[in-house]
Amino acid sequence: MRVALGIALVLAATGCKKTRVTECDDLLALGDKIQKCELIPEGSRQSIKTNMDQMRNALKMLEDVGDQAPKEQLESLGRTCKRQSDSIRKAYEKSAPSCL
To answer: For the chain, what are the domain ranges?
Structure first.
């Protein structure tokens, strides 16, 4: 997932205070909700779970390492997570709107 690459770039420049990216937290919440929805095929739910687990691990490293990442990189990561969230919503808004 491209988000994981962005997170890795941010991690390369981080320091010591906990950092959260709200848009990524929102994306994780959406992914968690969709992966529990039985209207979504099992294969798709498993794929979403795998991607969300990878993102959660990368975000945990970011949180643990700190807030020394350049503001621009954190903002870029937030935009990437927002785009991913919008893409997921668009993908399921017609086929499984109750899952959103």
So the answer is: 2-99
Q: How far apart are the C-alpha atoms of 21 and 55, rounded to whole Å?
A: 12
Q: Name every residue whose Cβ is closer than 8 Å to that of residue 90 and which is 6 or more positions away in sequence.
A: none
* pTM metric for this prediction: 0.75
Q: Please, is 41 exposed, middle or buried when counting C-beta atoms within 10 Å of its C-beta (0-12, 13-18, 19+)?
A: exposed
Is residue 44 exposed (0-12), middle (13-18) or buried (19+ Cβ within 10 Å)?
middle
R_g of the chain computed on alpha carbons: 14
Percent residues over pLDDT 70 in the chain: 76
**Chain-centre distance of CA 24, in angstroms?**
4
**What distance in Å separates the CA atoms of residue 92 and residue 95, rounded to the nearest whole number?**
5
> Looking up tokens 């020394």, which residue turns up?
68
CB 100 within 8 A of CB 34: yes
